[in-house]
Structures are given as structure tokens and as C-alpha cells.
Design brief:
Structural class: alpha/beta
Shape: globular
Helix content: 40-55%
Number of domains: 2
CATH topology of the largest domain: D-Maltodextrin-Binding Protein, domain 2
Strand content: 15-25%
């Protein structure tokens, strides 16, 4: 693209395109600014600069948000391609000669131990010519990284539909309620109960299972934090069955009698146009191996 005039100008324009993609994703200049850690005025300036270069308005600016114009829609796919190409080039240029490419995996928070750790080990043993990196965050952040070329593949709880993104079912795992002391399930709030937010699917199922317990004294987004608190201070909560089996076996925790078993679904996401690349194929092969291990 002709907008890449110099090294400094190129970097500046890449950030302007990132700003465009973030506003497109969030539908809000303010939210996009928060996500990119800049002021709203800086975000507006980036979009205005991009519109000046393209000589086309990209957004319909409204009081309740921003929507793409026809020109914005036309630019969208090109913007994604430019950012992904830039990230790929930046990463590969920085690699040492012992690696053929950099591959990146994004993993939803709470799945480092069950997905990221065994995947890294598999890559080390089976694809040593690829340098690897793992990002761990919430679904919306990981989907943004995927669109912007910062990672090749993402494992998320709540995928965002996009015509350029392949979304596949990855795994479904049971969530069980455990307690530091033997007890039966109760319909209302129980002292010491920690509500681990496993995502929209879990929130809906939990509300249906416990309609008389609408509020929770303690809510956490990281399962590891909740589990550590229960093991040290006592209490109960829902956790991946696989992650608490060792504590059930040694008597540190107990299954809450009659508590319903809920489910936690994860999805595999990657960009359609990169799906046949050796890097993405290596990531996917490793993840299939990890998934097989998890269901043994």
C-alpha cells in the first residue's frame, strides 16, 4: 500500500490501521481507545489520519457508537491483511537462523495447565524448527490478537463470529462443585462459596441450576485464584473436574453431594487464509494431540 512511505511512517500507519480494526470490533471510539491504552482524542486522530490518507470516510460517527461506511466495509479485509502481514514479517525478521517461523497460540484464561503447557511440550518435541509463543487472556482480547496477526490460533470460550475466521468446537469438559468440607448442595447462597466466572454458557447454566442464589459474595475470573483460596481458607466452587481430581483423591476437597455437573465448552479459532500455512498446521496438529490426551 502506498501509505507506507518510510520506516517511521510505516509504524505510524500500522497503528492507525490497528485503531480502525479496534473501532470496527468494538463499535466505539472510547472502548477502542481503552483497549489500545490511548486517549479517545488520540484514537480519533488516528482514524482521521487514516481517512485523510484514503480520502474516504470510514465510520458513521453517532452518539451511541460508530458503524462502518461503505468505504469502511471495503477497507476492512485489506486492513486485516495488512496488519497480519506486518506482524508476520516483524516476527520472522526477528527470528534467529535456527527457526523457520514464529507460531503463536492464544489460550483462554484458566486453560494454561490443561492446554498451553502440554502444547508447548509437544511443539518442542515435534516441531523444533518453530519458535513458539503463548498469550493468555479473555476471549475478546484473544480474538482481537487473532484478527491482528499477533497469534495464529486461539482457544476461547466465547468466539466472535467473523467471515474470515474459522471457528471449530474444540472440547467440552465437566465442571464440578467441590468443597473443603463434605456437604450437600443447597439452593441458596452458602458461606464461603466462590463464584468462578467460566463464561456466558456457565453463567446461564448456573443461574438455571441455582435460581434462588442470584448474587455471590466473592466472584473471580481466574479459577486458580478461587481454587487457591478454597484450599487455604476453605469454601466451595465450580472447577474443571480434571483440575481438581488430585485434591479429591488426597482428601483435600470433596464433591458437593447432589450438585449438578455443568459443562465448559472451548472453541478453536484461526484465520481462513492462513489455515494451510505450515505454522498453523503445526499448531493445529499439536492441539489435536493435546485434546486427545485430555479425553483419555
Amino acid at each position: 500500500m502506498a501509505i507506507f512511505i518510510s520506516v517511521s511512517g510505516e509504524a505510524m500507519n500500522i497503528e492507525n490501521i490497528r485503531a480502525f480494526l479496534e473501532v470496527t470490533s468494538t463499535g466505539s471510539f472510547q472502548k477502542a481507545a481503552e483497549n489500545l491504552h490511548v486517549t479517545q482524542s488520540a484514537m480519533s486522530a488516528r482514524i482521521k489520519s487514516l481517512e485523510d490518507v484514503l480520502n474516504r470516510q470510514l465510520f458513521n460517527r453517532k452518539r451511541n457508537g460508530a458503524t462502518l461506511t461503505a468505504g469502511g466495509h471495503a477497507f476492512f479485509k485489506h486492513a486485516q491483511s495488512v496488519v497480519r502481514t506486518w506482524e508476520l514479517a516483524r516476527q520472522e525478521i526477528a527470528l534467529s537462523d535456527e527457526f523457520s517461523a514464529m507460531v503463536g497460540l492464544g489460550v483462554q484464561l484458566n486453560h494454561w495447565k490443561s492446554i498451553a503447557a502440554p502444547w508447548l511440550q509437544w511443539m518442542k518435541q515435534n516441531a523444533p524448527d518453530f519458535a513458539t509463543q503463548v498469550q493468555s487472556d479473555y476471549s475478546d482480547k484473544l480474538m482481537g490478537m487473532l484478527r491482528n496477526g499477533l497469534i495464529n490460533v486461539a482457544i476461547v470460550n466465547e468466539p466472535q463470529r467473523n467471515p474470515d475466521v474459522v471457528i471449530e468446537h474444540f472440547a467440552e469438559q465437566p465442571l464440578v462443585m467441590v468443597s473443603s468440607k463434605p456437604r450437600d448442595v443447597e439452593a441458596t447462597s452458602v458461606p464461603g462459596y466462590i463464584y468462578v466466572d467460566w463464561g456466558h454458557e456457565f453463567r446461564a447454566a448456573h443461574s438455571e441450576a441455582f435460581p434462588d442464589s442470584p448474587s455471590h459474595r466473592m466472584t473471580v475470573g481466574l479459577a486458580a485464584v478461587g481454587l487457591s483460596h478454597i484450599l487455604e481458607q476453605g469454601g466451595s466452587g465450580y472447577f474443571l473436574k480434571r483440575e481438581v481430581e488430585q485434591y479429591l483423591d488426597d482428601g483435600s476437597l470433596f464433591l458437593v453431594s447432589e450438585a449438578p455437573e455443568l459443562k465448559h465448552t472451548t472453541y478453536l479459532c484461526y484465520i481462513t487464509e492462513t489455515s494451510e500455512s505450515p505454522a498453523v498446521q503445526a499448531v493445529l496438529e499439536g492441539l489435536k494431540h493435546v485434546r486427545g490426551d485430555r479425553h483419555q
